[in-house]
């Protein structure tokens, strides 16, 4: 079977019913020969991990990491490391669920829960995807503005036409899509390696920052409006994203597997884990380099504007840079240009993965399918609206206000990720812990189970703890006491709603799993009787 994404006539309808295999057009389309050696086999399985890693280095990560470095030196390096290790654990379980159960995470949840809960979880996850899409719109539009001096309003509309890129990619085959994503990741990596290498950072301090300390979660001091705790929450929130778990459980099924051969399934799980961990290691390096940039490329406290505009201009401003080599290179304009190129590459990468994830959750939760181009066009147009409103409302107030408004919109939109994250992590752990779902061989080991639940509780607690301040941020930096009190009241109501919805999800999953266990037992008894 070809590994092209096909568009059969029966899928010409804009919306059609879907209750088949996850991402059916590409499911099981990449054949992997046996007995070809470790490195060749790893190469054949490499690709899905890159699609997932993109979400860990999207534009939403950039300002949090660079600003964290500016404000607290290398203290938050350990947070990037912890986030990356948790991501590796969660993505391993997501890939394993897809490979072993032959269902993506959305399908697996829906198969165990009611239609009503499925619709609620679909809407919640769609909001999280749109929040990340807003960051991509802002990042890509700003990159076009900085590189080509295209007015921001026009640049925002241009981002809508990345749907044409997606149409092209659907014609060339999934392995080529994976290759393009890897190439764009390498562009981002090379840009930041080059800039950090020129800055000659203190590598002893860099590696020392990888050792976790309680100072990273302290509420004092406040530097540039950021505390170590808020900086840590920003990095964690921008790193571990719910849609990556849905995506990985789907794209891990693109390799052709003989599910009657347990060894073939085990081989796929093993090499998919290698692929995921290698690609997420690249994402860790990129995020670490961003933080190092904040410390070593710029003078301490030199970056007053942490937005993409501010970082671009700081890389052009010799007074903000830390040493003579950087200053000499900055005069050529190459540092700022490379930064904008990396920003554009990051936005385009996220376009591909965001669209695939949207299709996964729509098919899985509500059993509806749309052509990828149509889905991309609709979600991008929705995401463009708040960005356009933000640009138009601030266009007459000067560039500084416009830049701050866009930066605040991007950061504030990420609050939806805090809502959606528990509803992907908890079901993922419950199902991969289960012998019914995974079998004795592939269910989580006791160490993975313990680390998984610690990670889930830790991330959920941090996200919900940071929610009051996240809601307060919508009122701006000069919010009144009454507005802050209102924001906290809203946050507490939302926290109760999230916990209640999470309890509903857990109860339905537990009951659904028990039903499935009984069905399997009845089938086994009927087979023995026959």
Automatic annotation (TrEMBL):
It comes from the Bacteria. Keywords: Membrane, Transmembrane, Transmembrane helix, Transport. Its main location: membrane. It is a multi-pass membrane protein. Signal peptide: none annotated. InterPro entries: NRAMP_fam. It is found in: Membrane. It holds the Pfam family Nramp. GO terms for cellular component: plasma membrane. One of its GO terms (biological process) is iron ion transmembrane transport. GO terms for molecular function: cadmium ion transmembrane transporter activity; manganese ion transmembrane transporter activity. The chain crosses the membrane at residues 37-57, 72-95, 116-135, 141-167, 179-197, 229-247, 280-301, 321-345, 377-395, 415-434, 446-464, 490-510. NCBIfam families: nramp, Nramp_1, PRK00701.1. This is Metal ion transporter, metal ion (Mn2+/Fe2+) transporter (Nramp) family. It comes from Pediococcus acidilactici DSM 20284.
């Amino acid at each position: 079977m070809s590994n092209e994404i096909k568009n059969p006539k029966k899928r010409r309808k804009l919306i059609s019913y879907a209750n088949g295999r996850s991402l059916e057009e590409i499911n099981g389309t990449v054949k992997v020969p046996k007995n070809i050696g470790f490195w060749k086999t790893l190469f054949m399985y490499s690709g899905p991990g890159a699609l997932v890693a993109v979400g860990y280095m999207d534009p939403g990560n950039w300002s949090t990491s660079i600003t964290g470095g500016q404000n607290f030196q290398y203290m938050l390096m350990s947070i990037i490391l912890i986030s990356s290790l948790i991501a590796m654990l969660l993505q391993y379980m997501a890939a394993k669920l897809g490979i072993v159960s032959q269902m993506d995470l959305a399908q697996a949840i829906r198969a165990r829960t009611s239609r009503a809960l499925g619709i609620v979880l679909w809407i919640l996850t769609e909001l999280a995807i749109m929040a990340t899409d807003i960051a991509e719109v802002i990042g890509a539009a700003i990159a076009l503005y900085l590189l080509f001096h295209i007015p921001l309003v026009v640049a925002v509309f241009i981002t809508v036409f990345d749907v044409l890129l997606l149409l092209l990619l659907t014609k060339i085959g999934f392995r080529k899509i994976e290759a393009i994503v890897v190439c764009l990741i390498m562009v981002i990596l090379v840009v930041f390696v080059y800039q950090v290498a020129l800055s000659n950072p203190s590598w002893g301090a860099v590696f020392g920052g990888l050792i976790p300390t309680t100072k990273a979660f302290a509420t004092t001091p406040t530097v540039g409006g950021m505390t170590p705790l808020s900086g840590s929450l920003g990095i964690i929130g921008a790193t571990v994203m719910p849609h990556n778990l849905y995506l990985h459980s789907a794209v891990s099924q693109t390799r052709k597997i003989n599910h009657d051969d347990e060894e073939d399934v085990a081989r796929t799980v093993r090499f998919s884990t290698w692929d995921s961990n290698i690609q997420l290691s690249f994402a860790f390096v990129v995020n670490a380099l961003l933080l190092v940039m904040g410390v070593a490329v710029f003078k301490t406290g030199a970056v007053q504007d942490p937005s993409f505009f501010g970082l671009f201009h700081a890389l052009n401003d010799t007074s903000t840079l830390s040493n003579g080599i950087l200053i000499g290179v900055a005069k050529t304009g190459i540092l700022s240009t490379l930064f904008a190129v990396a920003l554009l590459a990051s936005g385009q990468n996220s376009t591909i993965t965001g669209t695939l994830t949207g299709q996964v959750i729509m098919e899985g939760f509500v059993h509806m399918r749309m052509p990828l181009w149509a889905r991309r066009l609709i979600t991008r147009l929705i995401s463009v609206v708040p960005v356009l409103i933000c640009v138009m409302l601030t266009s007459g107030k000067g560039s500084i206000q416009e830049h701050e408004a866009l930066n605040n919109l991007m950061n504030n939109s990420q609050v939806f990720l805090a809502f959606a994250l528990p509803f992907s992590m908890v079901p993922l752990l419950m199902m991969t812990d289960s012998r019914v779902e995974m079998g004795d061989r592939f269910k989580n080991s006791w160490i993975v189970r313990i680390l998984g639940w610690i990670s889930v509780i830790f991330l959920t607690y941090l996200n919900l703890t940071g929610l009051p301040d996240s809601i307060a941020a919508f009122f701006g930096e000069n919010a009144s006491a009454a507005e802050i009190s209102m924001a906290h009241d809203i946050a507490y109501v939302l926290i109760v709603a999230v916990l209640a919805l999470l309890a509903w999800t857990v109860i339905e999953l537990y009951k659904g799993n028990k039903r499935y266990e009984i069905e399997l037992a009845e089938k086994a008894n009927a087979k023995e009787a026959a």
